[in-house]
Design goal:
InterPro entries: Methyltransf_11 (IPR013216), Methyltransf_Superfamily (IPR050508), SAM-dependent_MTases_sf (IPR029063). It holds the Pfam family Methyltransf_11. Keywords: Methyltransferase, Transferase. By secondary structure, the chain is an alpha/beta fold. The chain has a single domain, classed as Rossmann fold (3-Layer(aba) Sandwich). An 8-stranded mixed sheet has the order 1-7-8-6-5-2-3-4, sandwiched between helices.
């Protein structure tokens, strides 16, 4: 049903220390990094856009519906939803993203908020959309519970979440070269599905889809991640730049591809959920 694409740009940081569990992630730091990336985000976020477009295709036209876009970023997807929905609200953790979105799309409502504590009343929207945002949540159960809470009876959610197993080429190269990279630990798909099953959904469907990203060199791959604000610093992590020698070692250890490019793969859990009437 979904056709993954070979596109460009996203995830991992030009820093070199210890991986920290996702629940330790500092949301203030995440918000600050994505705020700083707001102005250049759309130009760099090719693969994020591809994943979002796939999620929008799965959602279909929700004509006449009220929609909440969680993790709206610069508002690109919110604006697409506004083309065929009566009421659309974009929400993002990063104030810089909210400011960028509001400036670009002044007729759409945007607000700052946390996906685990959505600042809206229960049952207030008929649809929740979210792409490449919920993986930053500390507790899948709480994030899914909030989606369920804000949906009106009979409402629908379409979620695209990056999950564990992503970046196998990058991780393999780092292990082979003996380099520790600062990658946030991602929740596995089974944990997200378990969280979904804790709420009383009337309908649940899901797909785990791999999207491939390609780069001419290892530096471009790594810089693209920082360029969209995704290289979030977490607690108990000391910041240290990768040296030229380490970059060369990482590139040399990278799995060979038939195209000669540096590939990076993202595993995305697409969730389609329906709340009972």
């Amino acid at each position: 049903m979904l056709i993954p694409a070979n596109m460009t740009q996203m995830t991992m940081a030009l820093i070199d220390p210890v991986t920290t569990p996702e629940h330790c992630a500092d949301k203030r730091d995440i918000a600050a990094r994505f705020s700083a990336a707001a102005a250049q985000y759309d130009a760099l976020a090719g693969i994020q856009h591809a994943i979002a477009d796939a999620a929008l295709f799965r959602l279909g036209e929700m004509a006449g519906k009220s929609v909440l876009d969680i993790g709206c970023g610069t508002g690109r997807n919110t604006a697409k939803l506004a083309n065929y929905c009566d009421e659309v609200t974009g929400m993002d953790l990063a104030p810089g993203m909210v400011s960028q979105a509001q400036s670009t799309y002044p007729t759409i409502t945007f607000l700052q908020g946390d996906a685990e504590q959505v600042p809206l009343q229960s049952g207030c929207v008929e649809c929740v959309f979210s792409s490449m945002a919920l993986q930053w949540c500390g507790t899948p159960r709480q994030a899914i519970s909030e989606v369920f809470r804000v949906l009106a009876p009979g409402g629908r959610a379409e979620l695209a979440i990056m999950v564990a197993g992503s970046f196998p080429e990058l991780k393999s190269a780092a292990d082979k070269a003996g380099i520790q990279l600062a990658l946030n630990t991602l929740t596995c798909a089974t944990q997200w599905l378990a969280a979904v099953c804790e709420s009383d959904w009337a309908g649940i469907s899901h797909d785990l889809v791999s999207y491939s990203d390609s780069f001419d060199n290892i530096t471009s791959l790594l810089k693209s991640i920082n360029g969209v604000g995704a290289g979030s610093q977490t607690e108990n992590r000391t910041r240290a730049r990768l040296t030229k020698g380490k970059l060369q070692a990482l590139a040399a250890a990278f799995p060979e591809s038939t195209s000669g490019l540096f590939n990076n793969t993202y595993h995305i859990l697409h969730l389609s959920l329906e709340k009972p009437l």
